[in-house]
UniProtKB/TrEMBL annotation:
It comes from the Eukaryota. It comes from Wallacidia oculata. The lineage of its organism: Eukaryota, Metazoa, Ecdysozoa, Arthropoda, Hexapoda. This is NADH-ubiquinone oxidoreductase chain 2. It is a multi-pass membrane protein. InterPro entries: Complex_I_Subunit_2 (IPR050175), ND/Mrp_TM (IPR001750).
């Protein structure tokens, strides 16, 4: 009950931020929201206390940068603080580490809720070259790390970092475009984490049974924007709304998305068909529950939805 109350209070202060145009007031509301979120992490993280402490250090460092930027009227310092909170280049290393150490229930919140306050502040300030540079380098760095890992938590963290770059691009177009992208991203992330949580998935993809792999492939393709899934349509909408001035960032993001989709396709095809050849898997229809059928129907509806 306490966790739900803290979550709603954190969300409420994030929404209150939209009612002010003062950077200082928005910063104060954001810090209150962050404190609620860290308290929620402390209550949820019973086994590993390193995550709340690490989050506290990250928030303290980024908030100090933002406060200095507001006092000195430095857009660069404010941008550095915001990018740190979002887990983007150059302060991006904490995001995969925190996601790796946290359970899926916690990751579902870590990859969605803390993104709201920084983007609320970005909405009242114009993007600068530093933000655009981070938007370009973040997906490139994520791709390099993506090739070197097979851990699902790290993969989700890197995917979240790439989506943050897309959100900055969407925010540069209009706030409504960002709202649409963030909503679709949040729904996909929550569904993915819920599924991994319910299937009691830990790390290794090879530990999954056949049915779980099928659903996992469909959901992860949705996260990565494989056509014609919902995130693909969301990216197409963002591309249609953008101006020609952002063509460089768009090319980098599209290349990053294409490479990541190729990587995911190879990884899952190898896992799916490789394990099928090694062990003669027989699907027992009686073992498929009503829950499994509902999940499959829901995922198929999500994929074909335009």
């Amino acid at each position: 009950m306490k966790i739900k109350s803290l979550m709603w209070m954190s969300l409420m202060f994030s929404i209150i931020m939209t009612m002010s145009n003062s950077p200082m007031i928005m910063w104060m509301m954001m810090e209150i929201s962050n404190m609620m979120f860290i308290m929620m992490l402390t209550l949820m993280q019973s086994k590993n206390n390193n995550v709340p402490a690490l989050m506290m250090l990250v928030q303290f460092f980024s908030s100090s940068l933002m406060l200095m930027g507001i006092i000195e009227s430095s857009t660069m310092l404010i941008s550095m603080g915001i990018l740190t909170k979002l887990g983007m280049f150059p302060a991006h290393m904490w995001m995969p580490m925190v996601i790796f150490l946290s359970p899926w229930k916690l990751n579902m919140l870590l990859m969605t809720l803390p993104k709201i306050p920084p983007f609320m502040i970005m909405n009242i300030m114009s993007n600068n070259n530093y933000v655009f540079l981070s938007t370009i380098l973040t997906p490139l760095i994520s791709l390099i790390k993506l090739i070197k890992t097979s851990d699902m938590k790290v993969i989700m963290a890197l995917s979240s970092m790439i989506h943050s770059s897309w959100m900055i691009l969407a925010k540069s177009i209009s706030f409504s475009c960002w709202q649409f992208y963030f909503t679709m991203y949040t729904l996909n992330t929550i569904m993915m984490c819920k599924f991994l949580m319910m299937s009691k998935y830990n790390n290794n993809i090879n530990n999954m049974n056949l049915l779980t792999k099928v659903i996992m492939v469909l959901m992860l393709f949705s996260m990565m924007g494989m056509p014609p899934v919902t995130m693909f349509m969301t990216k197409i909408y963002t591309v249609n709304m953008m101006s020609m001035m952002m063509i460089t960032i768009l090319i980098v993001l599209l290349v990053a998305s294409a490479i990541s989709m190729v990587y995911y396709s190879r990884m899952f095809l190898k896992t799916f068909f490789g394990s099928t050849k090694k062990s003669k898997i027989k699907i027992n229809l009686k073992s498929i529950s009503l829950y499994d059928i509902i999940w499959i129907i829901f995922i198929i509806m999500l994929i074909v939805m335009m």
